[in-house]
Amino acid sequence: MKRKISALLAADIVKYSRLVAADEEETVHRLADYRAVFGEAAARHGGRIVNMVGDAVLADFPSSVDAVRCALAVQEAIDAHNCAFPDDRRMEVRIGVTLADIMDQEGELFGDGVNIAARLESLAPPGGICVSQTVAEQVAGKLPVTFTDIGPQRVKNIRNPIRAYVFVPQAEDGGRSWRGLTTRKGRLLAGAAALTVAFAGSIVAAVQFRDPGQARWVAAAGPPAAMQAALRFDGEKVRALADKQAIPLPKNLKVLVPAANVPAKLADYLGAWGGDKRWNPRGRQAMLIVESIDESGTALGFYAHSVPLMPNEVTQNSARFVPFASSVTDKGLHFVWGQAKYTFRLMPDGSMFGELDTTNSRGHFNFSITLDRIE
Question: Domains, the chain, ranges and CATH?
């Protein structure tokens, strides 16, 4: 396990559960857009998405300036997306950024810095950014933003108070401002808010569920061909194969039939794939589940794998799953998990051909696997 200095960015969607309760399908589709925005912005500014779990995002960057540039780009993009929706359907994002000495184990990050980034995110106003003192000092004069000092903030599970600074992009244009935390009352409210998001630290790794739950395959309105394809999804078979191979999956799975304007070649990527093959003779078994695809080609789903056949001190007990947001192109479906790059291409026979490009402490490796559609 190596140590490094990184600028960490943590984010989530304000009142995401309320958005889901009001319109589940629309929110799921918009979540895919939200993840794609983060993925594109992080890559553009030299960063890496460490994990996406639900509406939570964790990313790391080589510098504070890069991380804040990414945060500003995300808020600008999300604000533009919100123009098409009424106020009660706005998908507002909070972002926290800190600079920390952290531990990196094959792409997964550990340490107080990860928790501090999550706590700063909880202090950010809707549509705003909250950063640590070090980050505020490092970006001063380098970016056209002015952070407001809200003083030392006490947050759960962090021994010493964190001096925090906030910025709301809309405030510079005469929109919303963020002054409440400069008062003692405001700080107390911030502490209470931080307590409600204590679970945010769980974004450092994909969650592993041992209860298989019950899969739910949901058909939305769509073209007849897509409706017929939806009948091929068999949640019980997916769960049965996952249990047999000790592959964890989320408790709830949904595969949504795409809208009529989604091309058939993209809609064919919807579904679940698995099988008995492994990435290599001693490697992992894998499952790919694509839950939704929008007209832009953004796919939302889960990748899951078992413990390797020959586990070692690093890989033992590491069966897990990870959500992904990926743009499907002629080259296939591509996403990054830690230091591993995955590409899956749908074959003419309906199988899914996967390629894994990864680097770890033992070197650089390339593997491939063929997964069968589960139907």
Answer: 2-204 (3.30.70.1230), 224-373 (2.40.128)
Q: Are 319 and 306 in contact (CB under 8 A)?
A: yes
Are 314 and 105 within 8 A, CB to CB? yes
pTM above 0.85, yes or no: no
Contact 245, 271 (CB under 8 A): no
Residue type, 223: P
Q: Position of tokens 């990748």?
A: 303
Strands 271-274 and 363-373: antiparallel
DSSP state of 159: S
CA distance 30 to 59: 20
Q: How far is it, in rounded angstroms, from Cα 64 to Cα 47?
A: 11
Q: What are residue 335's DSSP bridge partners? A: 342
Rg (CA), the chain: 21
Per-residue pLDDT of the chain (375 residues; tens, 9 = 90+): 788 888 999 999 988 888 888 888 888 888 888 888 888 888 999 988 888 887 889 999 999 999 999 999 999 888 888 888 888 888 899 999 999 888 877 667 888 888 899 899 988 888 899 999 999 999 999 998 888 888 888 877 787 888 899 987 754 444 444 444 443 334 333 333 333 333 233 323 232 222 333 333 333 334 444 444 444 678 889 999 999 999 988 877 777 777 677 888 888 899 999 999 999 888 899 999 998 887 778 888 889 999 888 766 555 557 888 878 778 888 899 988 777 889 999 998 899 999 998 876 666 788 999 999 998
